[in-house]
Amino acid sequence: MLHLDVMDGHFVPNITFGAPVIKSIRKCSKLPFDVHLMIDEPLKFIPDFASAGADIITFHAESKSDITETISKIKKFGKKVGISIKPKTDTKILTPYLKYIDVVLIMTVEPGFGGQTFMENQLQKTLILKNEAQKNNLNFEIELDGGINTQTIEIVKDYPVDICVSGTCVFNSEYMTSTINKLKMR
Ligand code: ZN
Questions:
Q1: Is 66 a catalytic residue?
Q2: 107 C-alpha to center of ligand 1: Å?
Q3: Number of domains the chain is built from
Q4: What CATH number is attached to the domain comprising 94?
């Protein structure tokens, strides 16, 4: 998948790009677009990102938008729903919503900038969530985002993780394909 980090300079102290850029790169790739909204008011912008070509829309539990309403809006557009939590946020915040969503994205760095150090202590959350999924027969996927590289993947491989986001490690490597393959082998 292509993971696209949308930042608004409010929810996180950095600005990246919005729906128009996603719309223009949509033409260049058939890969699923995993759009990660690090913005204050995701609910307002769901129609824009849905029509820009997102396949999965992930928003933050800590944003200002109502979680239930945001989930329904994303589903109304026929897209998969992800909810993300920052490192300091407890997984408990997700409990009421787990049966309605497709992906839980656990941030393994403070969101805002690429190239940060992987926070190993966040891996505990994958165990809590996996346990929750098994107990209640739910089938959301667990995604990690931040600091994943060919070294940290060695720690991640022992945890119940379905999707790993890797930015800096892939883009800074000389041979992207072989780096991606190395990560996938784990
Ligand atoms: Zn992301």
A1: no
A2: 8
A3: 1
A4: 3.20.20.70
As a whole number of angstroms, the distance between CA 46 and CA 65 comes to 11
Dihedral in degrees, nearest 10, Cα atoms 172, 160, 55, 2: 10
Centre of ligand 1 to C-alpha 108, Å, is 10
- Where would I find the H helices in 55-97? 67-76
Residues 6+ apart with CB under 8 A from 3: 34, 36, 145, 165, 167
Q: Which domain holds residue 141?
A: 2-184
Pairing assessment for the beta strands 163-165 and 141-145 based on DSSP bridges: parallel
Report d(CA 42, CA 134) in Å as an integer.
29
Is 162 one of the catalytic residues? Answer: no
pLDDT in tens, the chain (186 residues): 999 999 999 999 999 999 999 999 999 999 999 999 999 999 999 999 999 999 999 999 999 999 999 999 999 999 999 999 999 999 999 999 999 999 999 999 999 888 889 999 999 999 999 999 999 999 999 999 999 999 999 999 999 999 999 999 999 999 999 999 999 987
With H, G, I as helix, E, B as strand and everything else as coil, classify residue 15. strand
175 token code pair: 């041979």
